[in-house]
C-alpha cells in the first residue's frame, strides 16, 4: 500500500510538471507571436515564471518529496539554492497575479484610461518591481544560515533546517507581503469588478428610437399608452440578460479568487501555524503536501489566465491549423455560447464602460441634450457610472 501511494504521488508530481511545461510554453508562444496581444504582457510574464518553476523548481521538488530519492544528499550551498528558488518563484507568481488583477480592473472599468497609461515602460517597471521584491524577501530567508561543508538529506532541505529565531520573523513577513496583502488587493479589485458587473446587468435595454426620440412629440393618452406598452413588452427579455450578467460575474469571481486561495492558502497557513504556534518544523509529509498544492498553481495558471481567453484560444486554433496544413475553409467559428464565461464577462464589462466614457466625452451638455435625456429617462445601453479617481 505504501509503495502504491509513492508511485501514485510520483506520477502526480511528474504529471503536474509536464502540464506546467506544455501549457506555459503554448500560452507564451501564442502571446509572443501575436503583437496585438499587448494587453497580455503580464500574463506572459506569469507564464514565464511558471515555466522557470517547471524547469528548475518542480524537478527539485520531486527529488525532495519522493522516497525514491532518499539517497540524494544536498550540501549547504545546494540547499540554499533550492530554498532560494522555492521562495522566489512562489513570490513572483503571486505578485504577478495581483498585478494582473489591478491591470484587469483598469482594462474593464476604465478602458480609455488603460489605453493611455498602459505603456511598455510601465509594464517593465512592474516586472522589475516583482523580481526585486521576490529576491529581497528570499535573501531574508537565507540570513544566519550555517557555513561550511555541512550536508543534509534532500527531504529535509527546508527553510526550517537552519535554526534561529529569525525564521519566525521571516515566515510572518513572507506571509504578509506575499500572501495577505496580495489577497486583499485581489479581493478588493474583483469585488469592484463585480459591483460594476451588477450595475451593468441591471441597466435597462435600449428603447427603440421611435419610442425614445420621436420626431413629433405627442402628449396624448394614446401615445403614452403605446410607449408604456412597448416598455412593458421588453421586460421578459431584460430579466434573462440581467441574470446572465450577474451569474457570469459571480462565476468569474469564484473561479479566479477561489483558484488562488485553494492553491496558496494551505501553504501559507501551514507555515504560519508551524512557525508561530508549533515553533519548529523539520519538513515531513504535511509540508510536502502543501508545497505541491502551491506548485499546482504553476500548471493551473496558464489555463485560468491564458487558455480560458477566447482570443488566445482562437490564435491557438489558427496555429494548430497552420501546423496541420488545413484549408482556410475549415475556420473555427466560436459562438457566444461556446466562448468562455470569463472572456464573455470581461468583454461585456469593457463594452459597457467604453460606451459610457465615449458618451460622456463626445456628447456636449447642451440644453437640448439635457432636456431629451431627462424626458426619456432611459440610460445608454450597458452604461456604467464612472468611478471617481
From TrEMBL:
Residues 23-305 form the G-protein coupled receptors family 1 profile domain. Its main location: membrane. Keywords: Cell membrane, G-protein coupled receptor, Membrane, Receptor, Transducer, Transmembrane, Transmembrane helix. It is a multi-pass membrane protein. InterPro entries: GPCR_Rhodpsn, GPCR_Rhodpsn_7TM. It is found in: Cell membrane. The chain crosses the membrane at residues 6-31, 40-63, 83-102, 122-145, 169-190, 249-269, 289-308. One of its GO terms (molecular function) is G protein-coupled receptor activity. Residues 364-389 are annotated as: Disordered. Gene3D superfamilies: Rhodopsin 7-helix transmembrane proteins. The keyword rRNA-binding does not apply. One of its GO terms (cellular component) is plasma membrane. Belongs to the G-protein coupled receptor 1 family. This is GPRX protein. It comes from Poecile atricapillus. The lineage of its organism: Eukaryota, Metazoa, Chordata, Craniata, Vertebrata.
Amino acid at each position: 500500500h505504501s509503495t502504491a501511494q509513492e508511485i501514485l504521488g510520483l506520477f502526480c508530481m511528474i504529471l503536474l510538471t509536464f502540464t506546467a511545461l506544455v501549457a506555459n510554453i503554448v500560452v507564451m508562444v501564442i502571446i509572443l507571436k501575436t503583437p496585438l496581444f499587448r494587453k497580455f504582457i503580464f500574463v506572459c510574464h506569469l507564464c514565464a515564471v511558471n515555466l522557470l518553476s517547471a524547469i528548475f523548481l518542480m524537478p527539485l521538488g520531486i527529488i525532495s518529496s519522493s522516497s525514491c530519492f532518499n539517497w540524494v544528499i544536498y550540501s549547504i550551498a545546494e540547499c540554499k539554492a533550492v530554498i532560494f528558488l522555492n521562495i522566489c518563484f512562489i513570490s513572483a507568481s503571486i505578485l504577478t497575479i495581483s498585478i494582473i488583477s489591478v491591470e484587469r480592473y483598469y482594462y474593464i472599468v476604465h478602458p480609455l484610461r488603460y489605453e493611455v497609461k498602459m505603456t511598455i515602460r510601465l509594464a517593465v517597471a512592474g516586472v522589475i518591481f516583482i523580481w526585486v521584491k521576490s529576491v529581497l524577501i528570499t535573501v531574508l530567508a537565507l540570513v544566519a544560515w550555517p557555513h561550511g561543508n555541512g550536508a543534509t538529506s534532500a527531504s529535509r532541505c527546508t527553510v526550517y533546517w537552519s535554526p534561529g529565531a529569525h525564521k519566525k520573523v521571516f515566515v510572518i513577513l513572507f506571509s504578509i507581503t506575499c500572501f495577505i496583502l496580495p489577497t486583499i488587493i485581489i479581493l478588493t479589485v474583483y469585488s469592484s469588478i463585480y459591483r460594476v458587473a451588477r450595475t451593468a446587468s441591471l441597466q435597462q435595454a435600449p428603447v427603440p428610437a421611435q419610442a425614445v426620440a420621436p420626431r413629433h412629440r405627442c402628449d396624448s393618452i394614446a401615445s403614452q399608452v403605446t410607449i408604456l406598452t412597448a416598455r412593458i413588452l421588453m421586460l421578459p427579455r431584460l430579466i434573462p440578460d440581467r441574470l446572465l450578467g450577474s451569474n457570469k460575474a459571480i462565476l468569474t469571481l469564484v473561479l479566479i479568487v477561489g483558484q488562488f486561495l485553494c492553491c496558496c492558502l494551505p501553504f501559507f497557513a501551514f507555515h504560519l501555524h508551524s512557525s508561530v504556534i508549533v515553533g519548529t518544523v523539520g519538513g515531513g509529509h504535511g509540508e510536502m503536501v502543501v508545497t505541491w498544492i502551491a506548485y499546482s498553481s504553476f500548471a493551473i495558471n496558464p489555463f485560468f489566465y491564458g487558455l480560458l481567453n477566447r482570443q488566445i484560444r482562437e490564435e491557438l486554433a489558427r496555429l494548430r491549423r497552420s501546423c496541420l496544413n488545413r484549408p482556410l475553409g475549415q475556420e473555427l467559428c466560436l459562438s457566444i455560447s461556446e466562448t468562455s464565461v470569463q472572456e464573455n464577462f470581461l468583454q461585456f464589462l469593457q463594452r459597457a464602460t467604453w460606451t459610457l466614457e465615449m458618451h460622456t466625452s463626445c456628447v456636449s451638455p447642451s440644453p437640448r441634450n439635457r432636456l431629451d435625456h431627462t424626458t426619456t429617462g432611459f440610460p445608454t445601453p450597458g452604461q456604467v457610472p464612472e468611478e471617481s479617481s
